[in-house]
Amino acid sequence: MNRSPARAVWINVAVLIAAAALVQGLWGWQGLLRPWREVPPGALGLALAGLFSSYGLRAARIYIAETEIPRGAYGACLRLILINNALNWLLPARSGEASFPWLMRRWFGVDGARATGILLWLRLLDLHVLATVAAICAAAGWLAGAELAANAARTLALLAASAPLAIFSLRRPLAAWCAWPANRLARLAGRVLQGLPQRCGGLLRDLALTWLSWGIKLAALGWVLARLLGLRPALGILGAIGGDLSTVLPLHAPGGFGTYEAGVLALLAPGGSGAPLARLLAAAVNLHLLVLGSALLAGAGAALTGSPAKANARLSDLKTDKDLPP
């Protein structure tokens, strides 16, 4: 166990070196980064502002929904989201997700199983938005020339859109079933289910914040990708969806190198972009560098902001204030 973190670091270093060498061999770094000259700095700053705004909305989802988090601790929720996001990029196969329940328990005293349920619910909402938008794009004909049947795309959109509603409607029967057998696994599953919203208002709030967060992020990244390739914004958004789908799914390479680009190309290459495959790949790498760089910088800033001891003391004070009688 003590060797696992060191092994993960060396794996990521090896992947990073291999990716850098591949980029140099295909385009050269100067040639790869040349398209950024066509993007005005002010417009790029606006896109980055949209990207970081989406992180703030993700933190708001947790802060508003989880009653055990003391009021006034939104900043800690934002730090948690940024650190979790950075670790997801750095560690392979979504293993960075383990930081979410660990930090929720360490910083806010939230039960680990309940925090895992919150995480699973949030990831289901993320997948719901991305799959719904991608399927609607396909059904609307944005993938001109692709062998995707419109009826199948509409069916996928319906399934993706209804998935959170289905899980929410089944939460009480599932909780009752978990409470019936007297075994440890069932009790653990019941605690995980406590991470789901318990009222319709909570469901609608989570859906609204998720759609708003992803709407801002996809609009920002889609605009950047469209500007790099000279495409319609709709196709840029579609490519951004493919990249982000690769980050939500369990199969995720360290740093997203390879899997992120594959996700962008999977949705963008079959469409009517008209750009050569090499140019599409270069734009996907540039978009990946933008997302990865901003995530790692934000995560490092969150990890280095303030003293952990002072932060824990502040949260303890907030919890004490919360428990005081009116």
Biggest sheet overview? none
Name the poorly predicted regions.
none
**End-to-end CA span:** 47 Å
Number of strands: 0
Shape: globular
Helix/strand class: mainly alpha
Order of helices and strands: HHHHHHHHHHHHHH
Question: How much helix, percentage-wise, in residues?
Answer: over 70%
> How much of the residues is beta strand, in percent?
under 5%
Give a quick rundown of the structure.
The chain has helices at residues 3-26, 29-33, 41-65, 74-90, 99-108, 112-139, 150-169, 171-179, 184-193, 200-229, 233-248, 259-268, 277-304, 308-323. With 326 residues, it is mostly helical.
List keywords for this structure.
about 325 residues; mainly alpha
What do you see in this structure?
There is one protein chain. By secondary structure, the chain is an all-alpha fold. It has one domain. It is 76% helix and 0% strand. Helix 6 runs antiparallel to helix 7, helix 6 crosses helix 9 (184-193) and helix 6 packs across helix 10 (200-229). The longest helix is centred in the middle third of the chain and has 30 residues, at 200-229. The chain is globular, with a radius of gyration of 21 Å. The model has no long low-confidence stretch (mean pLDDT 79).
